[in-house]
């Protein structure tokens, strides 16, 4: 259990995870396979954006306004994990990314709830995100041969970004090893129901251990930032 | 757009002379001045105009540290709820026009977090009347509600929910989930398998 409040910048990686995944999910607007999913992904993105805003607001003394934190930092200043910056790919790819992330974020927020008001607030919302991802994983994995193959491929491709989730974030008192074991057991359980194979490969590349938390990102991240920050940088102070 | 009706519309109009009559005062009695908290609480929810902010349970505190200066504490239903800004603007307008407040500050507070249990009995009744299945009680005490899943290729038995969400139209307990997320973050989209009508369900959180 966590006993002490997070130190000053400890919540930045959590805010960056939420903002970047929100931006990725927003890319589905207008492209989701069915209307209900369009709405679901946009709603999850909105929840995540709200989390990012609340976490950034708590850092304004150190890092400036929400807009400055989101739109005026360079790539190396972002502390999000590499998993959330990975491109959407096909729907199965997005769902597996959602599963890996929400099965991490929800129990992490549950642990932080006693010391971080935002975590106490958002933990129940993230339970819905997680449920959404779990049920889609089962639906796709135990669906057609095509959906099964695509979901397995997504799991194999994204697995290398999962160990990073449990690299300790300085200033957050969490039993990271215990969180990692719980996560792996949960993923095994969902994959079992979905008829999917848990990837055997290492959960990280040799060069990438915890790299996102240190400000090192994968190639697609630069393009995401360019799109996300373009308007604010081109028209500083623009409002609706 | 959903059109508000009855007292909700009157409160939303922000017209001082009209809204004084909206208070449930006995006929003939001169309109008693409504307290700041009552006024702020009477503001209808911008997205669910059938219920007020007081009934939704999002209004935490209304104080007047000095005459004409009102402090309001508001808590969001969902972290990213975009209606919070509209709520704050509506509260400010009502307090300025109807209570003559000169300065209104609306602060958002996160702790303790809002729960669907905070919706009043009256609020639940109005939601159901409006066609939205109210959240099942006990959300705060229990683990997040698992939704049922229709059969997949190998799991031929659908999974069951512990307590049914009843259809707000015909009252049947046989309803199914269409989507966990509906027109707003706080609602799920369901369908009644008895009367076949789709409906929104205010999720437990």
UniProtKB/TrEMBL annotation, chain A:
InterPro entries: Aromatic_CoA_ox/epox (IPR052703), Ferritin-like (IPR012347), Ferritin-like_SF (IPR009078), PaaA_PaaC (IPR007814), PaaC (IPR011882). It comes from the Bacteria. SUPFAM superfamilies: Ferritin-like (SSF47240). This is Phenylacetate-CoA oxygenase subunit PaaC. It comes from Streptomyces spirodelae.
UniProtKB/TrEMBL annotation, chain B:
It holds the Pfam family Zn_ribbon_PaaD. Residues 1-30 have a biased composition (Low complexity). Residues 153-203 form the PaaD zinc beta ribbon domain. Residues 42-106 form the MIP18 family-like domain. InterPro entries: Fe-S_Maturation_MIP18 (IPR052339), FSCA_dom_sf (IPR034904), MIP18-like (IPR002744), PaaD-like (IPR011883), Zn_ribbon_PaaD (IPR056572). Transmembrane segments: none annotated. Residues 1-42 are annotated as: Disordered. It comes from the Bacteria. This is Phenylacetate-CoA oxygenase subunit PaaJ. It comes from Streptomyces spirodelae.
